[in-house]
Design a protein that fits this description.
Helix content: 25-40%
Oligomer: single chain
CATH architecture: 2-Layer Sandwich
Number of helices: 4
Number of strands: 10
Distance between the termini: 30 Å
CATH class: Alpha Beta
Order of helices and strands: EHEEEHEEEHEEEH
Length: 177
């Protein structure tokens, strides 16, 4: 059985829109992952104290036929192939960032992986794209609808719709490439 997973995608280095789309195209090349849905692209403000440009963010809804740790390893491989540099600067600029936000109803806390993502309920840039795909999502750890957290987020996080993307666009572009 495949697990229903939400993956947060973000970039603020280079062509951020293309980086996000390319990461999804890379994901669907693997037979263990099946793309179920994708959100629009959003321009979002960074939530870090580090001076950097805005991000482009979106979310992908996928089925995954493996463990959460194998998915983490898979996503980190894509980040590495796309040129992500892990320089020890937490929340700094990056060419691509792929985060497991939700993995079915799983609640997991291990050294290398926390599911749901530990900051999911505090980040508009993650919540808004997920809710676009499924407005009824329940945060399995906090047992509340994800939508209820939006009004509680402070700090002026901006989320601006840039453009819609579709499954057909991703699949067609992948087949052509």
């Amino acid at each position: 059985m495949k697990d229903r997973v939400f993956i947060g995608i973000g970039s603020n280095v280079g062509d951020s829109q293309e980086n996000c789309i390319r990461s999804i195209k890379e994901m669907i090349k693997d037979g263990r992952l099946r793309l179920q849905g994708v959100s629009s692209l959003y321009r979002t403000s960074p939530v870090s104290d580090i001076s950097q440009g805005n991000f482009i963010n979106c979310a992908a809804f996928v089925s995954w036929a493996g463990s959460p740790l194998s998915l983490l390893e898979f996503l980190m491989g894509i980040e590495n192939r796309m040129g992500r540099i892990r320089d020890g600067i937490k929340d700094g600029p990056r060419i691509i960032d792929l985060d497991i936000l939700l993995f079915g109803n799983l609640v997991l806390q291990e050294h290398s992986l926390t599911i749901p993502h530990a900051e999911l309920h505090k980040r508009k840039f993650a919540i808004v794209p997920c809710l676009e795909i499924d407005p009824q999502i329940i945060h399995p750890g906090l047992r509340r609808p994800l939508a209820t957290f939006l009004n509680k987020i402070e700090g002026g996080q901006s989320v601006e719709l840039i453009r819609k993307i579709s499954l057909d666009e991703i699949v067609t572009k992948t087949q052509i490439s």
